[in-house]
Every structure is written in structure tokens, then in C-alpha cells.
Amino acid sequence: MKYWLFKTEPDVFSIHDLAKSPAKTACWEGVRNYQARNMLRDETKVGDRVLIYHSGGTSPCIAGVASIAKAGYPDSHSWDRKSKYYDSASSPENPRWYMVDVRLDQIFPCPLTLAGLREVKGLAEMGLLRKGNRLSIQPVTKGEFAIIVKLAVK
DNA sequence: GCCAACGTTGGC
DNA sequence: GCCAACGTTGGC
Questions:
Q1: Across all strands, nucleotide nearest A56 (CA–C1')
Q2: Taking the domains of chain A in order of start, what are their residue ranges?
Q3: A3-152 belongs to CATH 3.30.465.10
Q4: What is the reported pTM?
Q5: Is the CB of A88 less than 7 A from some atom of nucleic acid strand B?
Q6: For a tag on chain A, would you pick the N or C end, based on fewer CB atoms within 10 A?
């Protein structure tokens, strides 16, 4: 099993939107970065755990945990002309972009702020905390995941 | 709103 | 293949 961190802008799609989705499950569409695409397409498996990160705003934070409900599959928004994620280079026959389905497991009672996470020993190497890392899909180590869940549930 | 960091594009 | 220009991300 792998562990991930997915970034989202809560104004666009928050963990609360995920909670309101049918069966608390939604597709994670619109990833338009090749490195992130490759991970979604090649490395995700059903059951993988996903930290949901809210970027932007006054207090960016890890808001909760979800699981992969459907592993990487072509992002149909990429050939939907009406979608803001439309890409003329992508087609059903030759999809350029991929997405996954995620199902909410838990909203953290107290979201873990970025500032707070920087204080935590054992997370110093975490991708999220490294300068200049803009990837919206990031692998997380088993140890980092365990530390974060323990902090949030305490 | 600023700006650092990084990705993408396109001319050559 | 190099690299300048430009666009995007995202914390602050």
C-alpha cells in the first residue's frame, strides 16, 4: 500500500465537498502536470491512503484522509470542450491526462496547519514542506503518514 | 499583491 | 538541444 498527499484549493473542491459527494467518493480530475500524471497513472492502487491538503487561504492545512477508490484512469474532462480542464491534445483514443477516484475516510477534527507541521520532528524531509515543491500529487512515506494521523487524532 | 520556484513553450 | 520568455503555483 502506498501513501499520498493530494493538494486542492478548498474554494474549488474542499474535503467538505468530498464529504457531500455520493458515497463520499469523487473523481480527482484536472491534474495537468506530467510528473503528477505519471504517479496517478502508474503508481496508485485501490486502497492507497491519501492526505487531503487545502492550499491557499489564510491557513493552508492537511484537512483529512481519503482512500483511492479507483486507480488511475483517463481523465475524460481532458477531451470535454466545455470543461476548464479541456486539452485539445487529449482524446479518448489517446488520453494525455489521468485521474483517480477518492473516497473520504475522515475529516480531521483539528486540521494540521502547514505552520504546525513545520514544527514536527520527523516531517522535515516531507515533500510538502520542502521549498519550491509545487507538485499537486506527492508520495508520502509510511512513517510520515503515521505521524500525521497520530497528530490529527490526538 | 509580491515573489521564488518551477514547468512549458517555441525560436534558433 | 539550448535557453529566454512566459505562465502557474502557492506561501507569505
A1: C10
A2: 3-152
A3: no
A4: 0.95
A5: no
A6: C
Residue with cell 512513517: A143
Q: State residue A95 phi and psi, 5-degree precision.
A: -70, 135
pLDDT in tens, A49-95: 999 999 998 899 999 999 999 999 999 999 998 888 988 889 899 89
Q: Is A28 helix (H, G, I), strand (E, B) or coil?
A: strand
Please tell me the distance from the alpha carbon of residue A42 to that of residue A39, in angstroms, as a whole number: 5
Is residue A47 within 8 Å of residue A67, measured between CB atoms?
yes
Rounded to whole angstroms, the Cα distance separating A16 from A76 reads 24
Residue A119 to residues A23, A55, A113, A122, A149, Cα–Cα distance (Å): 35, 18, 10, 9, 15
